[in-house]
Specification:
Length: about 270
């Protein structure tokens, strides 16, 4: 890399963040385009109570781009100057651009959810079970509804699922009858279940998953979660979390750099790292 004092810093913040492959993916993209003298991408662990300080630091230090991962996607919004219309509708921000001191929030997670699915199926009228009700779920639900899917939300804290469903005008399920799982075309996990320290757990029972379903998990470390392993055993089509990371990342790359993202290069580094 050709870093100098003129190089613009992009930074991912989260808790945890050490597992993130975003720095490797973005930096590989910069190098491929020959702009690694202009941009560098780093990571920092930031506690939820310190998000405001992180945003203030972005202003004062002139940090160019701020990527927000779990659990910061909702809280960060209150400290920004402007929020893109789509991010506002989703109610979560994963991308902050420092435009001459003006901090603008965007959300590219919905693209990360929709693009991999649309490469293998048509989403209109598909019945989708979304697991979780946090910042990632908000983007996933938005993207699915935007493409005409029929969404039901399941969350272990029922109240959060009800509130999210009411906001997006969709339905919830409590999965009291677990056999309902087999009735969905797509199952989409947006929770952290499957990632350390819960890597040996699944967010739902897998015994009703069928070979007619698509199972998509946002967790990408480990590369293949227990949910995906069990779904594959049952013949389901699986989509790894690395695909969501890739496609939200390519959209984010273009916001930060104004360059078309080198998708294949960025994908290659993700799969190599996994």
């Amino acid at each position: 890399m050709k870093i100098s004092a003129k190089t613009k810093i992009c930074l991912i913040i989260g808790d945890p963040v050490e597992h993130s492959l975003s720095p490797a993916m973005h930096n590989a993209g910069y190098e491929a385009l020959g702009i690694d003298n202009q941009f560098v991408y780093l990571g920092a662990k930031v506690k939820i109570d310190d998000v405001e300080v992180a945003v203030q630091s972005m202003r004062k230090m002139g940090i160019h781009g701020l990527t927000c991962t779990i659990p910061h996607k909702v809280k960060v919004m209150k400290f920004l100057d402007e929020i893109d219309e789509i991010a506002r509708r989703i109610g979560a921000v994963n991308t902050v651009l420092n435009q001459n001191g003006k901090l603008i929030g965007f959300n590219t997670d919905w693209q990360g959810a929709v693009i991999p699915l649309e490469r293998i199926t048509v989403l209109s009228d598909k019945k989708v079970l979304v697991l979780g009700a946090g910042g990632a779920a908000r983007a996933v639900v938005f993207g699915l509804l935007k493409r005409g899917a029929k969404v039901k939300i399941f969350n272990r804290t029922k109240e959060k699922a009800i509130n999210l469903a009411r906001e997006f005008n969709c339905q919830t399920t409590n999965l009291n009858n677990e056999s309902e799982i087999k009735d969905f075309d797509i199952i989409f996990n947006t929770t952290s279940v499957g990632m350390k320290p819960l890597k040996n757990e699944t967010p739902i029972s897998t015994k009703f998953i069928t070979n007619k379903q698509i199972v998509f998990d946002v967790v990408y470390v480990p590369f293949e979660t227990k949910l995906l392993r069990e779904a594959k055993k049952r013949g389901a089509t699986i989509i790894h979390g690395a695909e969501m990371l890739l496609h939200q990342g390519t959209a984010q790359f273009e916001i930060y750099t104004d360059h078309k993202a080198p998708e294949e290069v960025m994908k290659k580094i993700l799969y190599e790292k996994n």
